[in-house]
Amino acid sequence: MSDETKQLANESNRGAAAQALLDNELFQEGFKAIDRSIWTQLTAANVHDTETITALLMLQKANQKLYKHFESIAYTGRMADEVLARKRRKQ
Questions:
Q1: Residue 82: which pLDDT band, with cuts at 50, 70 and 90?
Q2: What residue segments make up the domains of the chain, in order of their start?
């Protein structure tokens, strides 16, 4: 197995693991709970409390970035699957 094929297989495995997390109900529930909590606190915050509002918005952004990170890994895995499938067809 070439280094490229090993790397593609690794990306495929990582992608499958990330997709399994994204498909997992508890994982989804966790992200939604964090999102709801942040928005609840934001709506309850005093409009003049810019420190709290800023901190909550940063948490919201971090939560979104983490989710997008898993989506990116899953997408990369699907692309690796396609390349591996093309390589197999050429053999």
A1: very high
A2: 3-90
